[in-house]
Design goal:
Blueprint (H helix, E strand, L loop, with lengths): L1 H17 L4 H7 L3 H9 L3 H6 L3 E6 L1 H5 L3 H8 L2 H9 L2 E3 L12 E3 L5 E7 L2 E4 L2 E10 L2 E6 L10 H5 L7 H9 L3 H5 L7 E6 L1 H5 L3 H9 L1 H10 L1 E3 L10 E4 L6 E6 L6 E3 L3 E10 L2 E6 L6 H4 L4
Helix pairs in contact: 3-7, 9-13, 12-13
The structure holds 2-acetamido-2-deoxy-beta-D-glucopyranose.
2-acetamido-2-deoxy-beta-D-glucopyranose binds next to loops.
Length: about 300
């Protein structure tokens, strides 16, 4: 008799589990049809129907409408890029909202890190806010979100070394200053914002000054640290005032140009490229090298 009850229990349980549609059907049922169509174009439909379990961060159709048309078209014509973006929205295992705690990280199927935040009952994956949580599928869990996530371009250190950005001089100084591993780490929850002077910015300095920077360990540390802020500062949140830096006791002064409204660092440097998203923070590329007073006596 006991065995019989057990068998019935297991059978009913199995029926309940199977009662959920798979991830693709569940996305469709919940109106995420743009996502479903992109998944199909990327050839990932079968995986998301049958493999798993997965946790899916699903941008709604409205979220996709916020992406500029040409960016979306660009993605659709580049299968590898499309796959990369889609796989950044999926991670292994079933995670429900009660598992989501601020500071936790999940590694997406494309290998990049997603940060989790929860604030008075509202959950976030990176910049995306969860609109509907815990939609159960037969092979996973779905969270509907209001934004398409931007895939990070690597760690801060990897961005500094990306030849497209022409930051080789700042990268050299940072390496010499032994700050490379800190800016490459995704092992802790600490994030940094780096204001990276372009190579052109360094070329504005007299060659002898550049040499002094490149060859004196303390100067290199001061310069690298002075361009690094602990924490996240995105362009939209840059307010007039001071920005603390990793160069202890030295801060950057932020103001906005009266006529153009553009941000200026120490009254001079402009932000040339803003908000390059890294796995462990942000990089903004700036037009001039910021010289802290500790180095100012030596160069500049
Ligand atoms: C930087 O971090 C990435 C990703 O964690 C890793 O693949 C790479 O080997 C690291 N590079 C260096 C120079 O430590």
């Amino acid at each position: 008799m006991e065995l019989c009850k057990f068998v019935i229990f297991v059978t009913i349980n199995a029926l309940l589990v199977n009662a959920y549609p798979n991830i693709i059907d569940q996305l469709t049922a919940n109106g995420a049809t743009t996502l479903v169509s992109l998944i199909d174009q990327a050839g990932l439909t079968d995986t998301l129907k049958t493999a798993g379990p997965f946790t899916v961060i699903a941008p709604t159709n409205a979220a996709f409408q916020k992406v500029p048309q040409q960016d979306l078209a660009g993605l659709q014509s580049d299968m590898e890029a499309l796959k990369d973006v889609l796989l950044f929205h999926v991670f292994n295992g079933e995670t429900f909202s009660f598992d989501l705690k601020t500071g936790e990280r999940a590694t997406a199927l494309n290998g990049h890190v997603i940060r989790i935040r929860s604030s008075s009952g509202q959950y976030y994956f990176n910049e995306a806010a969860v609109i509907q949580e815990d939609i159960q599928a037969s092979n996973g869990v779905i969270f509907l979100v209001d934004e398409v996530l931007d895939v990070p371009e690597g760690t801060i250190w990897q961005i500094l070394n990306n030849p497209d950005y022409h930051l080789s001089k700042f990268a050299s100084i940072t390496k010499f200053a032994t700050r490379d591993s800190r800016l490459n780490s995704t092992a802790t929850t600490t994030r940094y914002t780096v204001f990276a002077p372009s190579d052109d910015a360094f070329n504005k300095l007299p060659a002898a000054d550049l040499n002094t920077l490149m060859n004196d360990l303390n100067n290199a540390k001061h310069i690298s640290d002075y361009h690094t802020h602990r924490g996240i500062l995105v362009a939209a949140n840059l307010q007039d005032g001071t920005i603390s830096t990793m160069h202890t006791g030295q801060s950057i002064k932020l103001s906005h140009d009266q006529s153009t409204g553009e941000p200026r660092l120490n009254g001079k440097a402009r932000v040339i490229i803003q908000d390059i998203q890294a796995d462990n923070g942000y990089v903004h590329i700036i037009s001039d090298v910021l010289i802290p007073p500790t180095v100012g006596g030596i160069i500049g």
